[in-house]
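2024-03-11 09:14:02 DEBUG pipeline.ingest accepted 1 chain
2024-03-11 09:14:02 DEBUG pipeline.ingest length=469
2024-03-11 09:14:03 DEBUG pipeline.predict start
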Amino acid sequence: MPAVPEQHTSAPVSWRPLVAACLGTFLLMIYTTIVTVALPNVGADLGGGFTGLQWIVDVFTVALAGLLLGMGSLSDNLGRKRVYLTGLVAFGLATLVCGLADSVAVLIAARAGQGIAGAAMFATILPLVGLTYHGHARAKAFAIWGTVAGVAGAVGTVAGGVLAELLGWRWIFFASLPIWAVALILGATTLTESVRTGNRIDVPGIAAFTLSATALTYAVIDGGDHGWTAPGAVIALVVAVVCVVVFVVVQRRSRTPMVPLKLFGTPAFIGVLVVAFGYYFASFGALPVLSLWLQGTAGLSPLDTSLVLTVQIVVFFLVSALISKRLHGLAPSIALGGATVLIGLGCATATVVLADPSWVALLPALVITGIGAGMVSPVFPAVAIAAVPPAYGGTAGAAANSSRQLGLALGIALCGTIYRGQGQQTTSGIVAAMVFCASLAVLSGLVAGALLRRPHKPASKVSSGQDVT
């Protein structure tokens, strides 16, 4: 195996395992956004109303967010490489079914399959990278991984528009299968298996967390569709609250909890979770409604829409790639909290569309949110892992990614609800959604900045997993 052993020598570092991890990450993350621009084409071909189209996007992120932590626990028991490769195989099969779907219902079900399989991949990729690289090589690997994860989600938006217009929406699924085959072969031959813990899997905790995330997202979508007092929305909210309570009780009583509650005594860990949720919600949660607005109100084609949204991608990539080393040298309160506030300010500039309802008016928002997201993405994985004792590094990484995906899921749901709530006033809907994103991002950044500035005991000085404060 080409993995780098834990030693302090100048032995050459093999980057093939990182390439394998980044390919899997890229494949996974493009499907958080690749359907966005193609939604009108999917609706025209398969039918289905706004809610059905929204679920095509959201069911993937809900399954991904809800199962991330559980898959992390499962991988500790069965081996991270084994769980990752199993998830990768299932992801490819679900992607094929997506491309062959003959109804919105089948497509939603297949997207759920993608999300479940993706959770197995996403929960294990970052720990596998951490297992392989050490010291400066690990910091560099995390930075590269974070950049790929962020860029891939944005690239999906462009790829979706291009493929939908030139080849048809089904090719947003078929076109990735060659990448999937390469990722599978490379992952199987280069990644190193982790040591199995043998701990009992926290099935009640996994079930409670997944149900709470799913119920909350359903409540937001159903409430926007039928009103917040509608039986479906009310029942879903009650289920979400009950499941959260059950989750906390289960974690307190379990000998092998999915997320040890002691971790929440670390301010920096909470700060990372707040940033992960807020920056992904604000940066990417409104993309589906922005796509609908650009094609419906501004009159752009899917290809033109994807090119407009490419502005955010280019800026994101340049920031992540060119200054990631300097970002790691900044205080986390600035690199994470400050950048999230910047994202909020960027979202606020979208109010310009009230005076000029054209694609040009969205450019400042895309540029500024691209800068902010490009600052956060390469930094937060390493900060999350460093905020807790080494024994909990995998859990911290999975929790941060889970918070990020939950932010995206709820961002899509809430922005869709706000946008749709304006009826025919679609430009007002875009402004309302972006103002909400702006408020959430600024609040998240300020809270996270305060938490990340609070002194806490570094992970390296904690001798036992029992002491995390």
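2024-03-11 09:14:41 DEBUG pipeline.report Residues 79 and 194 are 5 Å apart (CA to CA).
2024-03-11 09:14:41 DEBUG pipeline.predict end
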